[in-house]
């Protein structure tokens, strides 16, 4: 099959479509299924215009319609809730929270340098910890978004692994089309 209609590319396209509407549809299974159907209808239309074998597309759409909405929703709903709560970051990482993180880093770093049982003697350590404290809310958000992207990548990888099975749905006669009646003898008369 063409790469443009491979299971991986079509899955990415469906996920992109779902992601554009994530805030509005992640909580409702029916809405997710409807949006996935809209995304797959676009693929079906483009595929139909290309004149490629229909059995492959039927197998691909059946596979994606049955599993992608549930898999996406299982990942997207918790992420959307977490995102709505500001990723659980104290005060949503505003300036006051960042200043508190800076002073906390400075105090903890100072205690680490002063404590005789912790083998840190570098005097710059508290300042490095305080600078890291300023960027802690950003790091937490980036961590959660990266985790979410990795989970979506797993969904894509799982469906890309189905490609050989989907290609088995296409027979040689689907690729060649109908053979004229006089040519079915293999050229011998």
Describe the secondary structure blueprint for this structure.
Blueprint: H1 7-20, H2 22-25, H3 29-50, H4 54-84, H5 95-114, H6 125-134, H7 136-160, H8 163-167, H9 172-176
Helix count, DSSP H or I runs of 4 or more residues: 9
Ranges with pLDDT <50 over ≥5 residues? none
Portion in helices? over 70%
Number of domains: 1
Order of helices and strands: HHHHHHHHH
- Taking the alpha carbons of the first and last residues, their distance comes to 35 Å
> What is the CA-based Rg, rounded?
27 Å
Structure summary, number of beta strands? 0
Q: Give the amount of beta strand, in percent.
A: under 5%
Most strands sheet:
none
Classify the secondary structure makeup into a structural class.
Answer: mainly alpha
Shape: elongated
**What's the pLDDT, averaged over the residues?**
88
Question: Can you describe this structure?
Answer:
The protein is mainly α. It has one domain (3-175). 72% of the residues lie in helices and 0% in strands. The chain is built from 9 helices and no strands. The protein has helices at residues 7-20, 22-25, 29-50, 54-84, 95-114, 125-134, 136-160, 163-167, 172-176. α1 (7-20) runs parallel beside α4, α3 runs antiparallel to α4 (54-84) and α5 (95-114) runs antiparallel to α6.
């Amino acid at each position: 099959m063409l790469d443009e209609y491979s299971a991986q590319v079509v899955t990415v396209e469906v996920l992109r479509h779902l992601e554009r509407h994530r805030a509005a549809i992640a909580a409702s299974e029916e809405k997710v299924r409807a949006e996935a159907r809209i995304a797959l209808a676009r693929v079906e239309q483009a595929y139909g215009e290309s004149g490629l074998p229909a059995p492959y597309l039927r197998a691909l759409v059946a596979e994606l319609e049955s599993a992608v909405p549930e898999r996406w929703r299982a990942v997207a709903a918790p992420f959307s809730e977490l995102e709505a709560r500001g990723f659980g970051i104290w005060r949503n990482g505003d300036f006051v929270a960042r200043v508190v993180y800076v002073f906390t880093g400075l105090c903890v770093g100072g205690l680490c340098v002063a404590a005789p049982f912790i083998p840190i003697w570098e005097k710059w350590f508290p300042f490095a910890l305080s600078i890291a404290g300023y960027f802690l809310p950003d790091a937490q958000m980036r961590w959660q978004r990266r985790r979410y992207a990795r989970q979506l990548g797993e969904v894509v990888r799982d469906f890309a692994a189905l490609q050989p099975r989907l290609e088995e749905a296409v027979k040689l006669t689907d690729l060649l089309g109908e053979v004229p009646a006089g040519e079915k003898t293999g050229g011998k008369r």
